[in-house]
Amino acid sequence: MPNSAASTLLHLITTTTPLLLLLLLLLTTRVSATDHIVGANQGWNPGINYTLWSNNQTFYVGDLISFRYQKTQYNVFEVNETGYDNCTIEGAVGNWSSGKDFIPLNKAKRYYFICGTGGCFNGMKVSVIVHPLPSPPKPAIAASHASTKSAAAAAAAARGIYSMLVLMGLFPFIWIGL
Prior knowledge:
- Helix content is 37%, strand content 19%.
- The protein contains four helices and eight strands.
- α1 (4-28) packs across α4 (148-175).
């Protein structure tokens, strides 16, 4: 049966193509938004240096900032810079009190959050700078003397090699049906 190997290979290719495309799509998509839990394992409580915490984070548009606290004692208000500096909630643009608040950071700007039950005076305030999403990486530019045609051919060959390496890495899993 000389055609059995070819038949098996053809069957393998036709039945696993959708799976391969899905895996390649997953490998090339952006990782989901980051959820920054204020204070990490210490949560939203008095006496914690939230400036130090926020300086060790990088926030991007689309990320979340989460506050975890006892809802009977504390809350969260989004305020302007004056409200942040003076621990006042006048003119607040948002408030939360669930004890597990997930706040989307939808704009590239500086956000100011305080506790409105008096905790702000004991350090329960945090300011974060949200950055725009980084631009996708640009393809490598060929040497200035190379023609556009040869640069395009080189890029296509590189993509082909990369695709082949990905497929070779996935082949054992596909072969055994995982």
